Amino acid sequence: MDTKDSTSDLIHAFRSERLQYRKADETDADYKAIIAKVEQDPVTQALASPAILQPRRQKELDQYAENLARSLLGVTICLLPEEATRFRAQSGVEVDEDGVNSQIVIGVMALGGGGIPPSVAHHRTAALGIRIASPYQNRGYGREALNWMLDWAFRHAALHTVSITAASFNPRGIHLYQELGFSLEGRRRETIWFNRGWHDELEFGMTEREWEEVRRISASGQLRG
């Protein structure tokens, strides 16, 4: 195989059309700031986690940041410069005084949160989770980021299955996951207590073969006609 041909698609491996992905790093101030933003937002918190709805202490934020950084892959999601310019123009946010756009961090995402123990790594499966800060929701960024992570999981991490969960009171998330190619694999009935009501937890999964079908890629990695 020609080495140049096999690596030509890696030039922009850590970005997608509008987004860039940086490794989650506990020493990164941007990472800590976005963790606080999404974890202290009650709506984002309720949709992303079955944990009891409450303000988070700094220790809890630090623990979450540490756990995400230990994932098989944990990333901060950032706008590429041209998208940052477009977002600022649409939202009325001005550029920096020097005229250069600083990077905008919009969320975090993790595959295999907390890391995958060696004793179960041979199963080649991992759970996927994402949090997008409220100002950047409803712009397709979540869809784009999830697609990027799915490609990384099956192209580079050699995973065989990827899973993601949603509460039944999150119809938009459910619709998105199904549009991405996830299949509903199970429903844990009335296991989530939220806002004076019982709700189901839905488990979605995608196999490597299903990802290949969605991307129209053969098992050998070639694009199908």
Note down, in words, how this protein is organized.
By secondary structure, the protein is an alpha+beta fold. It has one domain: Aminopeptidase, CATH 3.40.630.30. The chain is 35% helix and 24% strand. It contains eight helices and seven strands. The chain has a seven-stranded mixed beta sheet with strand order 1-2-3-4-5-7-6, sandwiched between helices. It starts with a helix and ends in a 10-residue tail after the last helix. Residues 95-101 have low confidence and may be disordered. Keywords: Transferase. Pfam families: Acetyltransf_3. Residues 51-207 form the N-acetyltransferase domain. This is GCN5-related N-acetyltransferase (GNAT) domain-containingprotein.
